[in-house]
Write the structure tokens for this entry.
Amino acid sequence: MSLKVGGAEIIGVVLPGDEILQFNPDVNKERICIGPGLRWEDNVVRATKPGILKKTTKKLYYVDTHQKRYIPQRREFVIGIVLKKKGDYYTIDIGGSEQATISYLSFENASKKTRKEMKPGDLIFGQLLVANKDMEPEMVCIDTYDRAVGMGSLPEGGIMFNVSLHVARLIVNPENPFLLNISKKVQYAIVTGFNGRVWVKAKKQSDMVAIMNCILMLEVMTLKEANDNVFKVFESFSRHGLK
């Protein structure tokens, strides 16, 4: 009997090297997606880290693990911090063991004349184009059609905080009602990276701090428990007159 949590089906506990399923793209007509903690090789999907194997309704398989240290994965979306400029590239902190780079041409409508200018400390949301043990991670802020589609520098005025990687994966799930529940109390914008960084922006500082506290509840509570306490968090901030 399967169990569903946060819109994802729990399949079971896996260890590195465990065979998850056999998949041959030349034979299988139905396509699947594999996420963090899994690797496809020789038509076999295996686990690369210990944790709980989950599957979403969109045929996305991934290993959920309470991990703090981010291991860069190709095609994952991350929030980075600009460290410095180095020639035609910027050095970006993505929370992993190695820093990432991004070219000034890896932005929408960028050219040598209209290159993207950023300064140390700026926040950037992008996708990892390169991520393997033999090369430093490389970010881009455009898709295959050279469109930004929401990627790029994050506006000033928001706040960024860190969560465990499993919490980050939980709140990026479009089937998760938790963020919709928060939106009943306040209008806000949110960007979540698979590297465990979350950026939020609202009209009032107190609302941003309240949203941060709501999301951090997922570190120690189930999704249902956190949902039940969302309104209490906002009431607490309102009762103390925080602006």
